[in-house]
Amino acid sequence: MVLVFPGDRIRLLSSSSPEGKDGEEDFEEDFEEIECGSGAYKDENGIKRASKIGEIYVKDVFEDDVLAVDEEDEDEENDEEEKKKKKTKKKRKRVVEVLNREEIEDENVRVRLPEVNDVVFAKCTKIREKMAQFDVLVCDGKPLKTEFSGIVRQQDVRKTEIDKVIMEESFVPGDVVRCKVLAMGEGRSLVLATNENPLGVVRAKCKRCKTTMVAMNWQEMMCPKTEHREMRKVAKIDEIKDM
């Protein structure tokens, strides 16, 4: 299954079910007929997008389609006659959903709120000279049901050469970043940090063509399509192949 993030375009190549079985049916032709369900929506251009982190599934929903039958005797109003006046058939429609693991397994697991030292995933929304702003998406491996915002200050981006940190070369709006919670702010806001090797950008798109980039080292990512490189504070990966 393909993992999608909030705002990602939903694309379907084959049918899927919560049991994880891929079908052979191609949805490209009739995708416009598929309705949006939980975790999915249409933007102003009619493009289906994800509203949360999860996996894409398409399911069949059957609704009762009640059709009236010609009345033979309008004076008969008892229950038996009413049943004869109507017949019901099942009407099928298809719905695309974005489901997290708990929803897939039909579990009602309570998602706890972020705490100090928790590792969270957040999406960068704005860059300022001395800090970056984020929407916090995931805590403890589970999507948050409550909206939280966060900031990473210049001094919390990395541990070395803090005075040389340039925020625009560390994060870009749209980046998904693995952070640690340093402190709880006012309301639903968090003070975040990326000043450890496992922390930093885990997903970013090329500014030129919007292709998802790959990490080259701890401070650089590259577009596999154009080979264009961009600066980031990159989360540690198992193996780095410089080019």
Describe the structure.
It is found in: Nucleus, Nucleolus. It is built from two helices and 15 strands. The strands form four sheets. It has a five-stranded mixed barrel with strand order 7-8-9-11-10. The radius of gyration is 24 Å and the shape is globular. By secondary structure, the protein is mainly beta. Mean pLDDT is 79; it is low at 14-29, 65-77, 107-111 and 239-243. Among the domains are: 1-13 and 29-64 and 91-110, OB fold (Dihydrolipoamide Acetyltransferase, E2P); 118-201, Nucleic acid-binding proteins (OB fold (Dihydrolipoamide Acetyltransferase, E2P), Beta Barrel), CATH 2.40.50.
Provide mean pLDDT, rounded: 79
Instruction: Give the CATH topology of the domain at 118-201.
Output: OB fold (Dihydrolipoamide Acetyltransferase, E2P)
Oligomer: single chain
Shape: globular
Strand order of the largest sheet: 7-8-9-11-10
Question: Superfamily at the CATH H level of the domain at 118-201?
Answer: Nucleic acid-binding proteins
Structural class: mainly beta
CATH level 1 name of the domain at 118-201: Mainly Beta
- List how many beta strands DSSP finds: 15
N/C terminus separation: 30 Å
Helix content: under 10%
Could you list the spans in which at least 5 consecutive residues all have pLDDT below 50? 14-29, 65-77, 107-111, 239-243
Can you name the CATH architecture of the domain at 118-201? Beta Barrel
Biggest beta-sheet profile: 5 strands, mixed, barrel
Strand percent estimate: 35-45%
Order of helices and strands: EEEEEHEHEEEEEEEEE
Protein name: Exosome complex component CSL4 C-terminal domain-containing protein
Domain Exosome complex component CSL4 C-terminal: 145-183
GO molecular function, one term: RNA binding
GO cellular component, one term: nucleolus
